[in-house]
Amino acid sequence: MKKNKRVIFNGAFLIIVFVLTIYGVFHGEDLGAMMDAIRSADKRWLVPGLALVAFFIWGESIIIWYMMRSYGIKLKKRTCFLFSSVGFFFSCITPSASGGQPMQAYYMKKKNISIPVSAVILMIITITYKLVLVVVGIGVAVFGRGFLHQYLEGILPVFYLGLGLNIFCVTFMTILVFHPLLARSALVWGLSILEKFRILRHKEGRLKKLEDSMDTYRDTAAYLKTHPRVIVNIIAITFVQRMAMFAVTWFVYKAFSLSGTGFWTVLFLQAVISVSVDMLPLPGGMGISETLFLTIFTPVFGTLLLPGMVLSRGLGYYGELLISALFTIVAQLTIGQGHGKENKESYE
Q: What is the crossing angle of helices 115-143 and 43-70, to 10°?
């Protein structure tokens, strides 16, 4: 019953945010002119953009496959692509992308991959995923002062908020991983405060569950210390993966036969949007992503700003949602049917 309520809540929340986004973006706009502009775009430039979205999903699957092999678990790359698709699909439709990794762990369990193993792998993916955003955001903030004032003057508070939240998240997760005793003390203290002010009701088993969850962080720390080369490779793959997704907007830019703005400028403007919205409790950054695009890309797309936003978000978010949804269906129909025969050994 609790699970069904959560599904209903997430579905209703997604629909409400989507409707409000559509209304906020298109209210008072000339939709006919926008559609004419979209139809006139050179679709040949959109094909590589869509390919980059697929590459983005595939990039995480390679990381999963690579880390599984380091554990001695042999999986086919197409199976890892299904794990990746499941993660992106549920991340796209749940607030703060909270549903992706639990569902990935669920499908990994179907392939006889134990929860402790999948938890460590997904934890490292999360840390490196956000670490790349932090590095890009700090690079823009420190070395791109002229860039900031030329394009981001109107959204600097949102950008700095998003960067700060990502830095906090990476720092907090790193503390959890490398200083589990300090992390445990902080979490127990925070739990007691929440119960004292009756934000949470006291439950006898909650502290035990908290202590059990710390095992994941200890295992993650052990993996990081014993596989430094693997971690470096994962960071490199993640960086290329993220840059590929940011570059989608440049292909939309070229589809309208526009010129005057360089590839790296468009890429980093899109990166700024990702840094700004990644930690916000909205499915896929819906609503705020469109608003930020319409604010900072005005000098880039000019009169084609709205159709540019529609195609950019259409490929970068809704294209990702569609591709991952299709392969999530495949995962539902296929994963677990072979009883995990691909694995070198069972981790039950």
A: 130
Q: What is the largest CA-CA distance in the chain?
A: 63
pTM of the model: 0.79
Cβ-contact 261, 214 below 8 angstroms: no
C-alpha to C-alpha distance for 79 and 317, rounded to whole angstroms: 23
- 18 burial (CB, 10 Å; 0-12 / 13-18 / 19+) is middle
Q: Other C-beta atoms within 10 Å of 33: how many?
A: 12
Q: What is the DSSP-derived secondary structure letter of residue 225?
A: H
| CA dist., res. 135 & res. 139, Å (int) | 6
CA distances from 267 to 20, 140, 234, 255 (A): 27, 12, 21, 15
Query: Which residue in the block uniquely carries the two structure tokens 């070198």?
Result: 344
3-class secondary structure, 17: helix
Q: Which residues contact 174 (CB under 8 A, 6 or more apart)?
A: 127
Read off the pLDDT band of 211 (50, 70, 90).
low
Burial of 206 (C-beta count, 10 Å sphere; 0-12/13-18/19+): middle
Distance of CA 193 to the CA centre of its chain: 31
What Cα–Cα distance (Å) separates residue 196 from each residue in 14, 123, 182, 191? Answer: 33, 30, 21, 9
Residues 24-66 pLDDT 10s: 655 555 577 778 888 889 999 999 999 999 999 999 999 999 9
What does pLDDT average to over the chain?
Answer: 81
DSSP state of 198: T
**For residue 210, what is the enclosing H or E element?**
helix 204-226
**Predicted local distance difference test score (pLDDT) of residue 342:** 45
**Alpha helices, DSSP H only, in 27-99?**
31-40, 43-70, 77-93
